Each structure stands twice: as structure tokens, then as C-alpha cells.
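Hey, sorry to bother you again with one of my protein questions. I've been puzzling over a protein and I'd love to understand its fold better. Take your time with it, there's no hurry, and the full record follows here:
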Amino acid sequence: MTAPQCGSRRFRRHLRAVVVPCLLGLSGVSVDGLAAELFRYRNSAGVVVLANTIPAEYATQGYTVIDHRGRVIRVVPRQLSEEEIQARAEAEAAEREAEEARLARRRQDEELMRLYSTPEDVERAMARKVASIQGAIDTVNANIQRLLSQKRGLQTRAAEIERSGRPIPQTVIDGIRSVEEQISEKQREIAAREAEILATREDFAEDRERLRYLLGPSDEG
């Protein structure tokens, strides 16, 4: 390459470095302005607008920020109404509750699998639990029979005193009333225990069916 050719190329590079910024300055466009953000939004007539600013009334409707090359920088969604915010909060709360329920169910299943190997194990556990409750009922029934005997003794004594023409002592009257209250309390306890047996059978039946589901179809038969 000759010396005149090298000088010509250096001159052209220098000319571009000087002339281009001048032309941009004369046209009112700055070099920094080429990288400015632009806002793309839809106006009230439904027309898509591209501008370097966005009116406040349209900003709440959502818009897209792009660079001078048309590349998307970020997308700003529209502002939600109070009703929509409330609905979103309720939906998020419902999803959290559903997730908590799923986790609780998983923990229950893991515990069920740890306690029992087969549905028959559940049946045997239920039988032991019911037998324990029934034993408590039998004990309470025995106490009721003792109280009934005590009541009959007090009533017999009161009748004898009354036949003799004497007034029945208050201690005897109070004793009969106290025994009757104890009997009523024991009867309520039995009713509660019987309800516990029903609930126990239902709970174990649910565990048995859930275990069958977790274990999958049996190969027997």
C-alpha cells in the first residue's frame, strides 16, 4: 500500500468522526438520545402509540418499554382494581390453604404407612381401641350399680323414718340427691364413651381404606 493511500484512509476516518456528530447535532438528535426508552401503549381509541412519554391516565392501563431498536426492556401490567386485588388475595389465600392441606395429607399418609403394614393391622388396632373404651364403660356401669344400691338403701331408710312418724333428716334427703346426681353424671359419661366408640370405628375405617389406596391393588385372587 502506498503512502498516499494510507493518508487518504486516515483522512476519511477523521472526517466521519467529525461530520457525523455535527449532522446529529444539526438534526436535533443526540447520540445519547438513540438509546432512550420509548413507551408503547394503547390510547382511548384503541390505537397503539409509541412515544417518549406516557400520559398518567394511560400508564395505569399497562404499557411496554422498548429501546430505540424496538427491543422490549420491560412490560408493566395494568393497575388492578380494588375488586381484582381482593380477588387475587383471596385466590392466593385459597391456594396456600390447599397447599397446606396437601402437605398435611402427605404427613398423615406417611404416618399411616409407618404405623400399619396391612389393612388387617388397622382392624386389629381398632379392635384393641374399642375394647379399651368398652372396658371403661363396664367400669362406669359397675359404679352406677353401686350408686343405685346406695340410693335404695337411703330410700329404704327414709321410708322407715317416715313410717315412724318422724321427719326425714336433711342429711338423708341430701344424700339421695347427691347419689342421683352422681348416677346422672356416670350415665352422661357412658353416653360420651359410646359416642367415642362410634367415632373410633369411623376413624379406623377411614384409615383402613386410605391404607388400601396407598398400598395399591392387591395381587390376591
